[in-house]
Amino acid sequence: MLNRSSGVWICVALAIGAVLFALLATNPYYTSLVVWILTNAVLASALRFVLQIGELNIATAAFFGIGAYTAAITAVLFGWPFWLTLVLAPLVAATLSALFGWVTLRAKGPYFLLISFAVTEVIRLIYTQTNAIGGNSGLVGMFPPMAIDAYYPALAVALLAATLFALYGVERSDLGRMFMAIKNNDAIPRSVGLNVVFLKVLCVVIAAAAVGLAGGLHAYANNVIAPADFTYFVAILALAYVKIGGEGHPFGPVLGAAVLTLVGQWVAGISAWENIFYGAVIVATVLAFPGGLVGLATRARSLVIRSGQ
Amino acid sequence: MSAAASAPTGGEVLLRAERLERRFGGLTAISDFSFELREGEILGLIGPNGAGKSTTFNLISGFIRPSSGRLVVMGRDVTGASAMTISRLGLVRTFQHNSLLSEMSVIDNILIGTYHHRSGHERRMEKVREVAGMTGLTDHLKAIAGNLPHGLQRMLSIAIALAAEPRILCLDEPLTGLQGAEVGAALDLFEALRTTHGLTILLVEHNMRAVMRACDRVIVLNYGRLLAEGSPEAVSRDEAVIEAYLGRGR
Ligand SMILES: Nc1ncnc2c1ncn2[C@@H]1O[C@H](COP(=O)(O)OP(=O)(O)OP(=O)(O)O)[C@@H](O)[C@H]1O
Ligand SMILES: [Mg+2]
C-alpha cells in the first residue's frame, strides 16, 4: 500500500514536473494547457473542499469570476501593479464569500445549492449590465509584466499547485476534522461549544480564496475575460471533475480535472456534442464506479494484493 | 409533591429553569416547567414517552429556544442564548438519537469535544486518552464510531461530552440498549464523575431501577408539565406518577 507521506511526495514530484514543463516547453499550446488543467484542479478541489461540510457550492464559479474580474479591473482600469492585483484577487473573493456565507449558510442542502446558483447568475448579470467593466464583452489586456512574461505559465502552475497543497493541508488539520464533523452530524460539534456557522463560513471563505487566486491567474493567462466564462456551468464541470476523479480522496479532483480537461481538448472538436459528452460521463461514472478513478484504483490494488496472497 | 425529600444537597444552584414553555405549532410540548439543578447532585428526569424530556434537554442546552420562561446557567441568564454559549459555560448534553459522529474514528469523535478549550495536539490527545480510559474505549480508539457495538457507542457519546470538560452533564437515556453488566459500569461511571470529578448530572432514563440507584432526587414530567418531585423512593410511590405511567400502558 502507498502510505500517506509517499503519496504526498509523489504529488510534490508531479507539481515540480508540471512547473518544469511549463517553464521548458516551447509550444504555448502545451504550456497554457498545463495552466488550464491546474486551474480546473483548483476549481474542483475548492468545490470538494466545501463538500467537506456537506454543501454543494455553485458559487465556486462566482468567486472564480470575482477573482478574475478583480485582477482585470485593477490591472486594466486602475493600472495597479501585477503583484498587487494578484493579492487582491483572492482577498476580494474571500471577503465577498464571507458575506455570502454569513447570509446563506443558515440554509442547507438543496436550499443552499439553489441560493448559490442564483447568486452566481446574478453576479454574472451584473457584469453584463455594467458598461464600465466591458458589459457582455468583458475586459481585455491583462498581461504579466514583460520581465516575467516568459515564465508566467510556470509561475501560475507553481501558485496553483501551492494552492492545492494548502487546501490539502487544511483538510488534514484540526479544522478539516471539524468540517468533517459538521457534515457527519452538526449537532455534535454544536453540543461541545464549537461555532458551527462560523466554521462553515470559514470553509467557504478558504475555498473562495483559492478559486479567487485561480481566477486572477486565469485573467493573466488568458489576457481576456468575459461574463460568459463564469456561469454556473463552471461549477458543474468542477463537479464532474470531482465525481470522475473521486470525491473520497484529495487527489481525486486533480486527477478528474486532468483527465477531463485533456479529453475535453479532443471532444471540443465535435463541439455541439461537448456538453452531452460531459453529462454522459458524469452519469456513467456515478452509476458504474461511484468512487471515481481514485476509488477504482484503490479497488484494483486491493484485488491485486488479495490475489497475490 | 414531596418537597421535603428534595433537598439532599446544599450545593449552589447551577441551573435554574423558570416557568419554561415550548410550543410546536399547536402542540405545547413543555409548559410552566420550573426546576433547579444543584452542584454535586445527580438529578433524574423521568416521564412517559413524549412527556417532553428531550425537549427539555434541547431547551436547556440552547438547541431550541423557549416560547416563554427563563433559563439561568451558572448564575447567568441564558434565555435564548446559543448552544455554543451554553456549552462553553459548562453545560454539555448528549443525545438520545444520532449521538455521535458515526463516520469518524473514536479518536476524532472525542477530539471534537476538546477543541473549544484545549490547545495543542498533545494536550488534546492527553484529554482523549483520559476520557477514553474512563469510558472503556481505550482499546477502540482507531475504530469507526458507527461500527462499534451498541454499548460502546453509548459510552462514546458520553466521552465526547466529557472531553468538553463540562460542569453540568446532561445525559439523554444513556443506558438504552445496554446489557446487564454495562448498566452497572455506566452507573459506576456516573458516580465517579460526581465524586472524583465534581460533575453535576441531569439524567433522563427509562430504566427505573437505574434511576433509583443513581439519583439523589427525581423530577417527573407528564404531558410537558411537572408532575412530581422528590427522592426516588417518594416519587416511585407517588399515586400521580404511577397513574401517569400505567395510564399510558407502560
Ligand atoms: N421539533 C419538534 N417539532 C414538533 N414536535 C416536537 C418536536 N420535538 C418534540 N416534539 C413533540 O414534543 C413532545 C415531547 O417530545 P420529547 O421528544 O421531548 O419527549 P420525550 O419525553 O423525550 O420522549 P421519549 O421518552 O420517547 O424520548 C412529543 O409530542 C413530540 O412529538
Ligand atoms: Mg426523549
CATH topology of chain A: ABC transporter involved in vitamin B12 uptake, BtuC
Helix content of chain B: 25-40%
What distance lies between the first and last C-alpha atoms of chain B, to the nearest angstrom? 22 Å
Task: Report strand % of chain A.
Answer: under 5%
- Give the SSE string of chain A: HHHHHEHHHHHEHHHH
Q: What is the class of chain A in the CATH system?
A: Mainly Alpha
Work out the count of structural domains of chain B. 2
* Mean pLDDT over the residues of chain B: 92
Major sheet description of chain A: 2 strands, antiparallel
How many β-strands of chain A, per DSSP?
Answer: 2
Most extensive chain contact? Answer: A-B, 17 and 30 residues
The proportion of residues forming helix of chain A, as a percent range, comes to over 70%
Q: Give, in order, the helices and strands of chain B.
A: EEEHEEHEHHHEHEHEEHH
- Tally of contiguous helical segments of chain A: 14
CATH class label of the largest domain in chain B: Alpha Beta
Whole-number count of domains of chain A: 1
Residue share in β-strands of chain B = 15-25%
* Strand order, largest beta sheet of chain B: 6-7-8-3-9-10
Query: End-to-end span of chain A in angstroms?
Result: 14 Å
| Major sheet description of chain B | 6 strands, mixed
Poorly predicted parts of chain B: 1-8
